[in-house]
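fyi for ur records
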Amino acid sequence: MLDDFLTRAALGAVGAAVAAAPLGCFVVWRRMAYFGDATAHAALLGVALALAAALPVYAGTLAVALGMALAVARLTGQGLSSDMVLGVAAHSALALGLVAASFVDGARLDLSAYLFGDILAVTRGDLAVIWGGALLVGGLMAWRWQALLTATLSPDLAWACGLNPDRDGRVVLLALALTVAVALKIVGALLIGALLIIPAATARRFAASPEGMLAGALGVGVAAALGGLWGAWTFDTPAGPSIVVCAAGLFLLSALAPRRG
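which gave:
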């Protein structure tokens, strides 16, 4: 079954959606949309460094994405404006990644795949990494779910309950870096933020509880992944952007639909 490239593409798309759904909820709740973009843009620098050092692309992506997330968190924690830091980090990381990629032999030919994804080229090894990352992200979120919710609602309440909001914030950063590494091959560095935010934002309108929003985001993410892949195959459009367009369409439908009770 895995010899069929469409089957591998569908499994990869669903795996990326599974990784992004739980984290996307916290990205929306914590208002970290631009934070996700900065981390995703840094992934391109990780790709260039990995290619230059002949290392696995996923390893370079994960290392640089995590480094960017920690650096931005550190700078915003020192009194600098978060909007300013995120703006500088996102654009600088993307530009630096593009410049670094230009020095790597053969990287220019594959650059569009890293920017916009290349889901139809997903291999068995990629599937193992994608689903391994998705399970790891899901495990991290399940392990710290209640603590993360408390720290998100009120850091002061978290301290009073004996929790450490800073540590839980680092858990979110680690999960964000993992998700970026997992989703890079599916939607590319420029569209990862959309895969994180749009399904969670769509589910938020109708969710009656945090767990309900998580389930809704997962459903929307999987539907957008499979719907976008079908659209790409049917209309011969780029797969990564098609997935995001499908997610945006679901968000628009949710915004126009009457809200429950």
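Residues 102 and 150 are 44 Å apart (CA to CA). thats all i got for now
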